[in-house]
């Protein structure tokens, strides 16, 4: 017999896959039950409502992002640019590790009730503030560009990182680590060819990564 | 008496504001009619269904982005980095000019029927390919970093730009032109302080833009 905890995990995993595929609003409790091959009534023994399932998924996703990124942000023994690179890697790792969970969080959280939505918005603000804080520390330390707009840039970076949940495929050409490396280079050094740097010729590995 | 064309525009404008606020799935035709202060039955004289309204909104948004950005992308008399800067400005301009229309397009297009969704996906792919193409032209011309991943980087840039629709406020501290300038610097030159560049002291205007 399946324990309550693992049954609950199955429900969340199945529900988040359906939410990712067709959206929260278009998924019914009956759809979730059918995908689990159980009766709707049995599902209600485990969850109070569809919104309750979404709330669990969203809370768990927020916990996963926080647990992966916060310890890196707080480690002041490392330069800000190194922490930023590791935060980018950790963030993309959380998305790639459970794409359904992360996508449901990023796309569907606005279907939560007003009170829960406000709680999620506050957590998202705090998470964004961690990225902004690293940029500000990097400016103060002379590592990062003092002409940046740390608030705008942290938002831009997080929007780009969260976009990965929309296009990442486990069978794709790039591993999560390769994607993170490229995001780090793009964020820190930009797209412009830098004068004075020597680049390998195309046949020495200077091709674009695909 | 209101013409059919302007009535239709009113309907789309009201509907897109509601879609942006509460989502397509949670908005009924009755809600749209109520916001317009007309009867649901009168609304159906102008639109066949709620999805029909969404389709008009989404098609118009895709047209607006194409019309603003395509002529810039095609103007081969300009260096790729200059075209990229202008494409960024144009894209943000389209978002800021009609936030409801752009947000409904970016957030709600997946609620369209499968056939219409496929048409939108193809247009979005073509639009992304224009940004990728500029990056590839910039690499070929020796302007842009040959070690970039043009596909990933174009996606990252568009995700970040589209994120503007989520946080831009007409009453905010930054104008669309200032936001576009910052996105351009961030994309081309990144966050790292560049050795050899002199930066103004904070009291000479070196503050972050806020």
- Count of helix runs of chain A: 9
Structural class of chain A: mainly alpha
What's the CATH H-level homologous superfamily of one domain in chain A? Tetracycline Repressor, domain 2
Number of strands of chain A: 0
Helical percentage of chain A? 55-70%
Biggest interface in this structure? A-B, 53 and 53 residues
| CATH structural fold name of one domain in chain A | Tetracycline Repressor, domain 2
Explain how this protein is built:
Two copies of one chain form a homodimer. The first copy, chain A, is mostly helical and 210 residues long. Chain A has a domain of 140 residues: Orthogonal Bundle (Tetracycline Repressor, domain 2), CATH 1.10.357. Chain A is elongated. The C terminus of chain A is likely disordered. Chains A and B meet through helix 7, helix 8 and helix 9 of A and helix 7, helix 8 and helix 9 of B.
Compact description:
Chain A has about 210 residues and is mostly helical.
Keywords:
mainly alpha, homodimer, 0% strand, Tetracycline Repressor, domain 2, disordered C terminus, 210 residues, elongated
Write the layout of secondary structure elements.
The structure is a homodimer.
Chain A: H1 4-22, H2 29-36, H3 40-43, H4 50-74, H5 80-97, H6 99-108, H7 114-140, H8 150-167, H9 176-189
């Amino acid at each position: 017999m399946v324990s309550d905890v693992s049954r609950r995990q199955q429900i969340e995993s199945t529900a988040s896959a359906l939410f990712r595929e067709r959206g929260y609003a278009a998924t019914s409790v009956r759809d979730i039950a059918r995908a689990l091959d159980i009766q709707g009534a049995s599902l209600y023994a485990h969850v109070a409502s569809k919104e309750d399932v979404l709330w669990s998924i969203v809370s768990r996703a927020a916990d996963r992002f926080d647990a992966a990124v916060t310890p890196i942000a707080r480690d002041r023994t490392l330069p800000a640019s190194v922490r930023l690179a590791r935060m980018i890697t950790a963030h993309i790792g959380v998305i790639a590790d459970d794409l359904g969970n992360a996508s449901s969080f990023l796309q569907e959280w606005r279907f939560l009730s007003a009170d829960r939505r406000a709680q999620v918005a506050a957590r998202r603000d705090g998470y964004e503030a961690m990225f902004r804080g690293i940029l500000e520390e990097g400016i103060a330390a002379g590592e990062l560009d003092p002409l940046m707009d740390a608030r705008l840039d942290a938002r831009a970076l997080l929007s780009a990182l969260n976009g990965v949940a929309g296009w990442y495929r486990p069978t794709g050409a790039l591993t999560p680590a390769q994607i993170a490396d490229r995001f780090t280079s793009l964020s820190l050094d930009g797209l412009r060819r830098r004068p004075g740097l020597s680049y390998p010729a195309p046949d020495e590995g200077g091709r674009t990564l695909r």
